User: Fold this.
Amino acid sequence: MPQTFREVADVIGLQAAFALVGLCGGYALYVPKSIPPHHLLYQVLGEELAVKFAFHFGGDTLYLIKGDKLGRAERDKKIVARRQQAKIREIAEEFKLTERMVWRILARGDRQRSGDSQQLELL
Assistant:
């Protein structure tokens, strides 16, 4: 999960964080220092969570990832994990993707892992 989303979820909970992503994912979200009852954030989060949200993020502009990207990242992790137990065709059918797309996702996962190990070697 992207860092900003994790921070938001830590403060207001996963369900409320997903509600915010559905509402304003992909857009800049200015968080006022005090959220009045007529504000959309107050209406979506409720009083208790709106107060917490304003306390932690008030005065900041947050950039929440779009919900579809968040779902894609989780899907890609599952695909990489499934590779050890299943054939490419089976994975493609399970996730309703083309075999070519599965190969691309796996290649991205390999590049990310090899980049991480190279970084550790530098330290």
User: Anything to note?
Assistant: Residues 99-122 form the longest helix (24 residues). Residues 3-65 form one domain.
